[in-house]
# Entry
Amino acid sequence: MPEPTAPQDSTGHDTGHDTGHDTGTSGRQRLLDALTHARRGQVVVAVLLAVVGFGAVTQVNSNDHDSTYAGYREQDLIDVLNGLAGTSQRAQSELSRLQQTRAKLSSATEKRQAALDQAQSQVDTLKILAGQVPVTGPGIQVTIEETTDHVNVDDFLDLVEELRSAGAEALQVNGKVRLIASSSFEQGADGLYVDHQLLTPPYTIDAIGEPATLAGAVTFARGPEDEFAEDGATVKVSQQTTLDITAVRKTQ
# Structure
């Protein structure tokens, strides 16, 4: 009996040997062909599947990061929100209280400073009136010269009082004696004693204040100027924009 021979195709080639190997090779070839010859619709579907997969992974990661309150019940979340709101309200109230305190302290400081400034101004005024400090300002200079007789002490005192009434802030005589409310005047044989100091003519009175007003207090009709003229003395009034009173009284 003749031996069996493998089937041959029409070309005479052997088609029956190693069937399993041919099957595996054909499957891989078909898969490769499918991938390399994929249609446009298949490519789009593949891309969409990749995007959906990436989104799912991202959402999982996000859920992992935001899981702090994930296990809270609704009432628990409401309590947390209420607590945060209460804390914010307390902080705002404290801020308002501190701002009000700052405003009060600022106002108190300003009032205190204003009171100190006013007190210092009063002290300065009292020192001037007491003759304890030099003074510079506008005013007048009155010069009295004897001609036929000695100046009467009463006329001199009237002149000083008129100047004070006209607003003189500071007065000095002959650049030596600072006049104050308690100053004394006495008639002397060779001159006038002012606060127990002998002053001789000509007498010069420096007065600080409004120049025109002070000058009018000397020259008005039947005023000091006329009184000195009746006693045989001449009076000269000079208005000054700046006048220095340097005589001061010693503090007791």
